[in-house]
Amino acid sequence: MQAASTETSQKGCFFAKRTIMSTAGKVIKCKAAIVFEAKGPLKVVEIEVAPPKAHEVRVKILATGICRTDDHALNGTIQVRYPTIPGHEAVGVVESIGEGVTCVKPGDKIIPLCLPQCGKCRPCKKPEGNLCEQTDFFKNTGLMYDGTSRFSYKGKPIHHFANTSTFTEYTVVHEDSVAKIDPAAPPEKVCLMGCGFSTGYGAATKTAKVTPGSSCAVFGLGGVGLAVIMGCKAAGASRIIGINRSKGKFAKAKEVGATECVSPLDFKKPIHEVLLDMTDGEGVDYSFEVVGSTETMISALASCNLNYGTSVVVGAPPSASEMTLSPTLIFTGRTWKGSVFGGLRSKHDIPELVSEFMAKKFNLDPLITHVLPFDQINEGFELLRNGKCIRTVLKM
């Protein structure tokens, strides 16, 4: 077991010397936010975090974002093992490593990866694949690879969430789920790379492969939707239409690259017909659904060109949802694609994306509307549910 050195801490990795010298190989007591049952409140309590086992990494969380998926975990619209520690969008520093870990060392700044990259399964070996078979999103065990948890509260195990669990001062992840990043990267900004920004930006640049001069429509102008707009702009799209029921986010959408915005509430006809009218009956080249509604997914598909248009599903739908649509929507040639984590290969692409941010190729400031201390996590969720924020970041 290795712990971060005193020298590393002096270089700005936010460790106190007493922590560096005393925690490796030991159980750490720290604050964490636990949801004990569906639709129950988040409770900030003191938990115990066990040392990492072989091929695992224990991480001190520095900053973590509040994502809509975390809210789905709280209200039970996605399958979760309770009790659990949510959170999956963060930046941290490696506190200690288990036997056999070679990709990071104590003191490294990292992003925990909700979508692992083991490099061994079939999706990882495919150039266009990224849905690593080690992800817990579908297996839903809420446990480490060995079938146990590293968290406990009052002597009882607490489940992990999305291979990460970042609503805690310390977490343990498998080495498949860590990406080493630039040590100078600001945690409260690049934590968005752990999910929201990467998912949206990658959906445009990697999944859809938006082309220069093309037209795009983005349904949903939350944090991920705004990141889609930024990706479309970076790819050279000449027209980017933002669609949102509330007009309160139109100014922010235009700030990051939308050329125009419309609200479905302003029209009596279906929104896809409005978009067809706006494009002389052609439809857009690319459409993106970033709401997670089956109805909106069909509208987004119908709004792109009937022959060469591409529509990408980015928003995560509720677990039990289904849809019915006419096969003619795709028979004519449309491409309908899903996008998990923006199609990005996490361990490989996230460090590169952070480097692009550090080179000022894009600005994350417009996406971060609130920064709160960790103890105010419930206030952060209220901001999300009331539509009063784009992204709230919690600093530990």
Structural summary, described in words:
There is one protein chain. This protein is of the alpha/beta class and 396 residues long. It has 14 helices and 18 strands. The chain has helices spanning 6-10, 17-22, 68-75, 122-125, 136-139, 187-190, 196-207, 223-234, 250-256, 271-278, 294-303, 328-331, 346-358, 377-385, and strands spanning 2-3, 28-35, 42-49, 56-66, 90-97, 109-112, 151-153, 156-158, 170-174, 178-180, 215-219, 239-243, 260-262, 286-289, 310-313, 335-338, 370-373, 392-395. The strands form three sheets. Strands 1, 4, 5, 6, 9, 10, 17 and 18 form an eight-stranded mixed β-sheet that branches. Strands 13-12-11-14-15-16 form a six-stranded parallel β-sheet, with helices on both faces. Helix 11 links the parallel strand 14 (286-289) and strand 15 (310-313). Helix 7 runs parallel beside helix 8 and helix 10 runs parallel beside helix 11. The longest helix has 13 residues, at 346-358. The radius of gyration is 21 Å and the shape is globular. The chain starts with a strand and ends with a strand. Residues 5-12 and 14-18 have low confidence and may be disordered.
Q: Secondary structure elements and their pairing?
A:
Elements: E1 2-3, H1 6-10, H2 17-22, E2 28-35, E3 42-49, E4 56-66, H3 68-75, E5 90-97, E6 109-112, H4 122-125, H5 136-139, E7 151-153, E8 156-158, E9 170-174, E10 178-180, H6 187-190, H7 196-207, E11 215-219, H8 223-234, E12 239-243, H9 250-256, E13 260-262, H10 271-278, E14 286-289, H11 294-303, E15 310-313, H12 328-331, E16 335-338, H13 346-358, E17 370-373, H14 377-385, E18 392-395
Parallel strand pairs: 11-12, 11-14, 12-13, 14-15, 15-16, 17-18
Antiparallel strand pairs: 1-5, 2-3, 3-7, 4-5, 4-9, 4-18, 5-6, 6-10, 7-8
